[in-house]
């Protein structure tokens, strides 16, 4: 019976290229460093959701401006029979339309949470990403640095190693349009989205931070398609109506895709 040749080397997970960095990271980094890297990656991925939750604390919708021929009819009654004016000047919280903005529990509880969340998540996370790569700017080619923070800069040119922080700020602008755009008419929401997409594409194409030109072209085409979709959706906006459900849904979906 023929015998298969015996090889001294064993087939391990490290022999496969996609898993080499993971095996090396598991062997070279301590548990604390591994958990820190996982936390940074998770915050980077969940950044849009964190910003949307934080900014949602300030999203208010004005039901009625208080003007018109029937001002006395702009009063509604809650279940406790306590009068509330629909023309509250600051509007009502979009997460709870029975709660007046900047009044009561919204001012005492949710406003401090919103301020702290905005500073910690919306502004703090991009600053942390920038400081992490800036601290290691002279050792970006080091293996251990690439294992820990490589996902923040390897796809960019060497002089734009800090671009991940700028990318998160661009995402913050899109999330802000989605969050606060629900409180304005569709035309204004579409215009804000077009402005943000145009500025984002202009900055990215001018700086050209990505290492691979094909990815740069694909990103520009993505922004162009989104801008064209928003522009064409305005054709369905009726002059007598300030609301267009389909356009609002498209705008929200575009922000999520980006």
Automatic annotation (TrEMBL):
What keywords would UniProt list here?
Answer: Membrane, Transmembrane, Transmembrane helix
Transmembrane residue ranges: 28-47, 109-132, 160-177, 184-203, 215-237
What Gene Ontology terms for biological process does this UniProt record contain? double-strand break repair via homologous recombination
Q: What is this protein called?
A: TRP C-terminal domain-containing protein
Q: Matching InterPro entries, A to Z?
A: WDR48 (IPR051246)
Which PANTHER family is this protein grouped with?
WD REPEAT-CONTAINING PROTEIN 48
- What is a GO molecular function of this protein? ubiquitin binding
Name the domain of life: Eukaryota
């Amino acid at each position: 019976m023929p015998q298969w040749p015996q090889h001294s080397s064993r087939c391990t997970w490290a022999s496969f290229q996609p898993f080499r960095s993971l095996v090396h990271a598991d062997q070279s980094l301590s548990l604390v460093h591994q958990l820190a890297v996982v936390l940074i990656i998770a915050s980077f991925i969940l950044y849009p959701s964190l910003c949307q939750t934080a900014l949602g604390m300030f999203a208010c919708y004005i039901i009625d401006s208080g003007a018109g021929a029937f001002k006395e009819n702009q009063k509604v009654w809650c279940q406790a029979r306590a009068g509330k004016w629909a023309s509250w000047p600051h509007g009502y919280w979009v997460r709870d339309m029975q709660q007046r903005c900047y009044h009561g529990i919204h001012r005492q509880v949710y406003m401090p949470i919103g301020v702290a969340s905005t500073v910690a998540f919306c502004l703090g996370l991009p600053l942390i990403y920038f400081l992490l790569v800036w601290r290691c700017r002279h050792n970006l080619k080091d293996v251990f640095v690439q294992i820990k923070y490589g996902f923040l800069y390897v796809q960019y040119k060497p002089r734009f190693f800090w671009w991940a922080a700028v990318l998160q700020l661009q995402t913050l602008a899109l999330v802000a349009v989605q969050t606060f755009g629900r409180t304005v008419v569709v035309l204004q929401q579409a215009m804000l989205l077009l402005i943000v997409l145009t500025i984002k594409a202009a900055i990215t194409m001018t700086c050209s931070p990505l290492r691979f030109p094909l990815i740069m072209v694909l990103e520009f085409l993505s922004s162009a398609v989104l801008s064209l979709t928003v522009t064409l959706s305005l054709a369905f906006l009726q002059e007598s109506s300030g609301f267009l459900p389909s356009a609002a849904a498209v705008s929200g979906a575009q922000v999520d895709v980006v």
